[in-house]
Amino acid sequence: MIRVTESLAQVYRQVANAAEIANRQPGEIRVVAVSKRHNQASIEAAAAAGQRDFGENFVDEAVTKITALADHRLCWHYIGAVQSNKTRLIANHFDWVHTIDRHKIIDRLATQRAETTAPLNVCLQVNIDAESQKSGAAPDAMFELADAVAQRSTLRLRGLMCLPKVRTDLEAQRKPFALLRQLFDELRQTHPTLDTLSMGMSGDLQAAIIEGSTLVRIGTAIFGPRPV
Ligand SMILES: *Cc1c(COP(=O)(O)O)cnc(C)c1O
After folding, report:
1. Which of 79, 98, 160, 198 to mutate to test the pocket of ligand 1 (most atoms within 8 A of CB)?
2. By Cβ atoms counted within 10 A, which residue in 26, 53, 131, 158 is the most buried?
3. Residues 23-38 pLDDT 10s
4. Measured distance CA(47)–CA(72) in Å, rounded
């Protein structure tokens, strides 16, 4: 079994190293520990080591964990594809959603999020490599989607997210992240409060941080390979 405390420290060192290369402050980059398919004990080990942000992809699995771990006061990020029949659970249990790519989902989440809780933090997902099988909307759809989120008081527009093709070469990894960063800067002209670029995973976090990522989503490097 992988030792979560050590691997977590290792990931924060990698983030700090990448920040140094990019001439940035490590504190500008938030690490979300992606705990999908890992058990509650693994999450508790990471929480005991000081980790606060956790990411999950499967709604039912996540709600069980969120409910069981409520006393830990963790921050939960939904990073899976959003199906309309799951929006109520997402609106009731999560703090963030990174994967919004259509108006119908914006309407449902905005209506279902209680007025009495903090607004749900939202990132729009961009299909940055234009892959037919992948979630996310086209770059030029972002402007209208952002306007729609910004109009809803129960949602808070935070930024953009992408999940590029797997590439191993650093220079090749940087390209889609640079494109997302460019789009983010354009969107900030009309939405100046945007502060989140959700990009980078275990295999490409250095490239993402060099290109301006403010939030990396790290699973394998913290928890080891996912159980099948
Ligand atoms: C699973 C997943 C991650 C984590 O991937 P690792 O390669 O294990 O770090 C990050 N983002 C999304 C959207 C994921 O589905």
Report:
1. 79
2. 158
3. 999 999 999 999 999 9
4. 8
